[in-house]
Amino acid sequence: MDKLTFERENRERIQAVENSFVPAGTPLSIPGRVLMGEGRLMKQGRRKPEPKDFFLFSDVLVYGSVFLNGRWHRKQRVVPLEDIELEDMEDGEGMKNQWLMRTPRKSFYVSAPSVEEKRAWMEHIQDCQSNLMQGGSSQPGSTFAVTWIPDKAAYKCMRCLNKFTRTKRRHHCRKCGFLVCKACSKHRAVINHIHPTKRLRVCGLCYIRNEEDKQSHVRGDGTEKISSEEDNEAASSDEEEEEETKPSYTSSSWLDGMGTYVYPRPMHERAPVKHNHNNTATVSQT
After folding, report:
1. Which of 24, 143, 146, 170 is most exposed, with the fewest beta carbons within 10 Å of its own?
2. Whole-angstrom Cα distance, residue 53 to residue 98?
3. Which region among 5-14, 92-101, 206-215, 225-234 has the lowest average model confidence (pLDDT)?
4. How many CA atoms are closer than 13 Å to the CA of 120, on its beta-carbon side?
5. Sequence-ordered list of residues with C-beta below 8 angstroms from that of 44, at least 6 positions apart, any chain
6. What letter does residue 184 receive in the DSSP assignment?
């Protein structure tokens, strides 16, 4: 495809995604950015899986809630690709073809309508990450949020073990992701990789450990207390629940070597991902 034609169509595609978010989100049209693919996936929320439209660019992943029959989006989230870590997962109850997506602010499960689309998403994200890192200007992240325990996974507070009721409601500790009651999560603490200044809800145990770590740094201790995985990671900030929405998927589409969008083929029919001289990931079509 002619370079000028490709650049024009790429700008139009990106502008269409940018315009679909209401109210207006972060501007997406920047020089050198390419829209590599898009599709609708199911994202595990606090109470239920929810449909989200995902847009993979050459340097960021953008997703948002779907409304008005998918013509518009809201609650835009923009995640730099260097801040994403993927982990393949087995099928779970109500979530098939799923994988875990970790980011510093929020970690969550997503699922695709087929194993082919799951693999296509994971491979394209990893290819874009690899191309981004080759330039040397970006480094992979090292601190990620823990995933929240789903509301239905616990009927008791995971600290005091008292049962949840209509008046004794569930809350999430942003540090460990546990489901806890209000009495066990009355403390607030800054979790730097989630927000540098905002004090977030944490359970009593995480608050104590956080204060001990702060005192240790103030004293200048040469060694830190060996902590569990729960201590080293932090859960994300709140994301509002969506209204009741019928779960749905749309087939993902990907940019091919000719600058057009194609749908993923079954794994045994797909050609391997290749890289052109500009380090742009393309999928060979046969």
Report:
1. 24
2. 15
3. 225-234
4. 31
5. 50, 95, 98, 108, 109, 110, 111, 150
6. G
